[in-house]
Amino acid sequence: MITMNTTSERENGAGKTDKALIFELSKPGRVAYSLPACDVPSKPADAYIPSSMLRQTPAELPEVYEVDVIRHYTELSRRNFGVDNGFYPLGSCTMKYNPKINEDTARFAGFAKIHPYQPEESIQGALELMYTLQNDLAALTGMDQVTLQPAAGAHGEWTGLMMIRAYHESRGERRTKVIVPDSSHGTNPASATVAGFETVTIKSNERGMVDLDALRAAVGSDTAALMLTNPSTLGLFEEQIVEIAQIIHEAGGLLYYDGANSNAIMGITRPGDMGFDVVHLNLHKTMSTPHGGGGPGAGPVGVKSKLIPFLPKPIVERSEDGSYYFDYDRPQSIGRVKAFYGNFGILVRAYTYIRTYGPEGLRRVSECAVLNANYMMARLAPYYEIPYPGVCKHEFVMSGRSLKANYGVRTLDVAKRLLDFGYHPPTIYFPLNVEECIMIEPTETESKETLDGFIDTMIQIAEEARTNPELVLNAPYGTVVRRLDEATAARKPVLNCSC
Amino acid sequence: MPNLHRYIPMTEQDQADMLATIGVSDTEELFRDIPEAIRYRGTLPISSALDEWSLLEHMKELAGRNADTDRYKSFLGAGIYDHHLPVVINHMISRSEFYTAYTPYQPEISQGELQAIFEFQSYICMLTGMAVANASMYDGTTALAEAGALAAGATKRKQLVISRTVHPEAREMVLTMARGLNLEVVEVGYTNGVTDLDALKAAISTETAAVLIQSPNFFGAVEDLAAVEPIIHNVKGLFVVSTNPMSLGLLETPGKLGADICVGDAQPLGISMSLGGPTCGFFAVAEPLTRRMPGRIVGQTTDLDGKRGFVLTLQAREQHIRREKATSNICSNQALLALCASIYLSTMGRQGLVDVANLNLQKAHFAAEELKQHGFELAFNAPFFNEFVIKLPDGVSVKETNLKLLEAGYLGGYDLGLAYPELAGHMLIAVTEKRTRSEIESFVNRLEESVA
What we know:
The structure holds two protein chains of two kinds. By secondary structure, chain A is of the alpha/beta class. In chain A, about 35% of the residues lie in helices and about 10% in strands. Chain A folds into three domains: about 80 residues, no CATH class; about 260 residues, Type I PLP-dependent aspartate aminotransferase-like (Major domain) (Aspartate Aminotransferase, domain 2, 3-Layer(aba) Sandwich), CATH 3.40.640.10; about 110 residues, Aspartate Aminotransferase, domain 1, CATH 3.90.1150. A seven-stranded mixed beta sheet of chain A has the order 4-10-9-8-7-5-6, with helices on both faces. In chain B, a hairpin with a 2-residue loop joins strand 5 and strand 6.
């Protein structure tokens, strides 16, 4: 039998106290809503809709009052860790500071309270913002035109691949294969599948770069595209990118740029100049829009001129009289990839961000992001294995394999121990081609003191692994729950409250 | 020191010390791996920097050139609705522990988000009557397209049958996805504002992976889901229903009516319109399809000490594990908007959801009746929820009418001729709980004047 107290906890029968579910706070007769009175003549619902189509019993939503709602979600927020709580060096995710002005501007009524089907005449400010952002992102990436429609990075990948497919088909070519390196994000091959391509995975060489011989062997008349992240997920700049582009283009394929790591290169080099034909950017990474606990993001896609006809519709255009409009007249378009015009609220934040920096500022962002990463790598190198020494870009990878071999302490254990020191751990076990991988991305918004604190903690954990491995193996100790039984969760899924 | 910026803490001294530790003399050396031929040496031709005050002024100016619903009364719906957002929602989603976190990869410090998603999944199951729901999709249209993809995979069939009463943009989205996956899409027409069941029967065969129906449909009409169900199940295809979650305060659940997959957009549940995004797609299935679902799923478990906790689970479906064999490529989702929906449903509760749905029903029917009284013709007489179609007098343009209404302070209805050539001169009107009787009456008068 479940018992409750007023502090939103519940005794779970095993002598432990759990945070209550909102459903467990319900008490019949309480309300948290306030609705307008019905000021029109009212009839029973079945006067309008046949009773066979009506719900026989209401959804069993909880009955709570407003203070319950506030305390419940406040308590949940306190059991969560965001960038505002502390250092979050999650590699490939660019967990930089999310500026507060972005949150304010996105909530202006003129942006938050407008409807996608209002007359264009009544949303000129929004259209101007989108038009300017399209142009800014095109300039930043060295592309000729941008669509703002995709909702996330993977969504952008799929959009780009669908355009690549349409481009080849428009030339009467059927190209079925997309090449990805083994260090690529999992979304790359998954997006290729959804766009109807087969994936060919090629190995990286001993320096973590694309193996040109393997690439040449994989390329052929069936190559639709190569997808590449540059800098790669190893944090390394693909030095042979010009040759790579040449190999692909000579075979008639196109180059797709996964922009997840763009925080390293703003104003320093541009995918368009490297030879890429299609680019997506993750605005929730590079452009500081918040990750939201998993979303929403935005994944605009830029293309070179030859792919412009295939962009999703609509695109925002400017007419000669200076007014802005949606251009739907795009007969070769791949169609629509999302309702309306993309995650507009995120676009407002990204535009606000660009305007806090301007071109010199964005370049400084990338310089500092890269400097921070190289500093961390230099300081950690004596304690953790650095599989690819040299300069890194905005992130770098380490391997925990010697800790595992010598003391039985895995990378997972190091990550869990970090939780006790108030840090969000780095990305672990990715990329897949580095054993016991630890992938660290500090971003530009962290101070030297923060980096030093984290580095010292990593050194201490390496020392603990050597002297007291049990301490690391059983971590964490100070979190609201300890290690969770993920195997049972997957074997006997409990995916919703049966209350 | 040039380049000082409030988001970047790097001092000149920090930079010198860090470069010394690395063993290089300047930051330029850190970019020596980038070939000179592809270095960008100019100044990017992008928007210039503004100080905080000037930026706020600039953004206010841009925002001020948009007609927002604080100043205009909206009768526009067509997939995005002007509902009241309980004030608690913005306060709670503004807790930065939620919005500045990423996907809860480290469950020990992400229990808040994980529990919130678990509650969202539970809420979606309660509303839809389905067995299992995921953590969210980009929006209702991509959720519908993913449902089609799931059905094709589960049935190993290549044909989707979709009603023309499904949102036109959702149909376009399904078509785009179908092209990628080499699926055939067959559209079925409507009669009296709802799916033509005879045409549907004729279109469905043992080749059909799924039938995709929206209810309430794009015209606002409630489809006869109970009649569709046996048609598709007789050929062992899947029944996919897209729905407006607020309508489920009153309408029978898709789960009870035999849906195998139920999707929709949670925008009516406390999410601001924001020119159509970000919103939040939801995705729910019958139990046998659980392991074919796209996207994140949270499951309940226990920790080492026996305490209840939550984790991302069934990850063997997902792209970061399965790569090209994943059930979908989705990675980022719409977690913060799923949180909006959960807080909305917590706030409305058992009775509030019924009440708000009923207010929509009553006010929309009052508006329809008023319009009839003023000589407007309703295009269909199928039962509807909070949206309905009127025919403007012959030769009157919906677009021109809406510009007149805009001048009078109203956002008029959706111009159906844009997506349905046969419905040129027809307007889709939405009425939510926010519209007062006097607003409705004034709107009807204005509309009457506008078309005179």
